[in-house]
Amino acid sequence: MLPFQSIGEAEAALGRNLTAAEVMWFRYSAGMHDFWLYAHNIAFLILVYSLAPLPVALVELFRPKSIDKYKLQPKVRHPASTVLQCYKDVVRTFILAVGPLQLFSYPTIKGVGIRTGLPLPTGWEVAAQLAVYFLVEDYFNYWIHRWLHGKWGYENIHRVHHEFTAPIGFAAPYAHWAEVLILGFPAFLGPAIVPGHIVTFWLWMALRHVEAIETHCGYDFPQTPTKYIPFYGGAEYHDYHHYVGGQSHSNFASVFTYCDYIYGTDKGYRYQKEHLAKLREIWKTNDLNEEVNAPLVKYE
Length: 300
Fold this sequence. Notes:
This protein is mainly alpha-helical.
């Protein structure tokens, strides 16, 4: 809740005029308790989850041939009923597990210093904090993901997420409720280390879910903007992990690939890439019009 009764009072306290964004923020949040501002996050998560995978899902449902050449596992098709059930299960987990956790964690969020007042952060401040959040989350997510592929972790928790051996956008957060909560820890760690504004926190959560949805979409679109991000994994990289399944010891990365490279857990994927490149070269030499766009080998 803002400690100002009017825009004039806020401008006097800051010693300058409010920006257009700050005026909007004042009008929206001035009389709202910080708890309710923080509670917005669960609504944003459901909204992002409902909308971000929708374009690809609709094209795949009504005009699949238009994007078939980009599909990573072209022989696997998920019927609409499976996608709808996946959506229901994820929303149920958000409401019954993620929602209560976020609400109960409100004192922690306040304690680490995530603020709701004025001034709003600058663009550079938001960008720097988001970079830290992505790097911190990615590193700790890597090790938790590796642990979940151990015998106990996989059989009791992580196998639910791998029910989709050919992932789809709606299945990005599809997982056992315990996994959803466990993997929430790295997502909160970055904001706890480098606390910022609640708006930055909302943006971080939204971007992280959009990234996960893109990584699980099942298509390797050539013009995806994330292809220009250094060390970014993407859909093709993570699709191999799902293809191998429970026995996978490859491609644990959440966002970036540097941990897999440093710790040697991308060998299966790199072997596959080299294998397919050799096959394409052979076919090109022999004038064969063949296309390989799905994993052919399971190598660890």
